[in-house]
Predict the 3D structure of the following.
Amino acid sequence: MAQNPPQIAIIGAGIFVKSQYLPRLAEISDLVVLKAIWSRSEKSSSEAVDIARKVFPNVECKYGDDGLDEIIRDSDISGVIVALAAQIQVDMSLKFLKAGKHVLQEKPAAACISELETALSSYTALYNDPSTQKIWAVGENYRFEPAFVESKKLVSEIGDMMSVQVIIEGSMNSSNPYFSSSWRRNFTGGFILDMGVHYIAGLRMLVGCEVASVSAMTSHVDTTLPPPDTISSVFQLENGCSGVFVMLVSSKSPKIVWRVVGLRGTVQVERGNKDGQHGYVVTLFTGNGETKSSFYPFSGVNEELKAFLSDISKVTLNGNKIEAEARSSYVEGARDVAVLDAMLESGMRQGAFVKVEKL
Ligand SMILES: *[C@@H]1O[C@H](CO)[C@@H](O)[C@H](O)[C@H]1NC(C)=O
Ligand SMILES: *[C@@H]1O[C@H](CO)[C@@H](O)[C@H](O)[C@H]1NC(C)=O
């Protein structure tokens, strides 16, 4: 007998909900029922509901404290997507986990190390009986991009790792819809933390081990952006290999590239376009002078949503035992924040050596 698709609610009605979650959920509308959208204000919730209704005709508009309570008490809703200002996401996610819902929270996992530690211990403390545990996933999508899944395999073919370079010249200017987002301007680490978790996720996925320590310089040059807007870090991986992470939030000639150099070859992942599609060009440079390139269009948000929905269905089927996708687990998102937190701390201390907190 076919199982009914899980019913979910979206908590938040901001840019990412309207431009990504609603269209991506519409593409997989056979796998999910969107039961409600909540926002603090009725206006923003109903705007998002108007878009969603074209695909999910019965979606309900919820707002304010009462609307939130109605979603919490609705036992048909088994999971929620939390996409709010980073400052309040952890509290909101824990509220829903406590109410017995599975949660997919937008990145960043938390705003700083102390909040990460509190979040992780509060999550564990919710469940006396581990078999009642609910899924807490973080939406960062990079670990689901086919480009990174494939590149990770290529890295295993290039022999001992010698050097890693991550160069991010972003394009966060006034044409970008997130540019004037108020919470990102009132957030320690600014866009470096909010955007940077993606690039660190890509790095950690490619190298297959943790960043152990960092030393970084930060600066604030473009005063239309919150500080800091540049960071240059050296880092050492647990496997002993060292590398550099350079990120600027806004440049006139954007470039986004990861390079892993091994004894027998190099793997490079670079943001690019092909036939009007955005994605990544993955290149393998081998020892005998050959190069092989493939283009992978973006599909990380889609893959990540499918994994979350399929995990919810499995939990329901297997009587609560969770075997959730590790790539979107809360702790993975937390480790990305921990690396940036260490870099930002080093930057504040003029490049001091900082060990990355192990989570
Ligand atoms: C913002 O960056 C994009 C991408 O690089 C560019 O096309 C656009 O012209 C820039 N806008 C401004 C106002 O600089
Ligand atoms: C900025 O963040 C602080 C702490 O999270 C908060 O108390 C304050 O109200 C925020 N200010 C604005 C303008 O959002």
Notes: The chain has a mean pLDDT of 95. The domain at 142-298+337-355 is CATH 3.30.360.10 (Dihydrodipicolinate Reductase; domain 2). Residues 87, 182, 186 surround 2-acetamido-2-deoxy-beta-D-glucopyranose (ligand 2) (CB under 6 Å). The first strand starts at residue 7 and ends at 11.
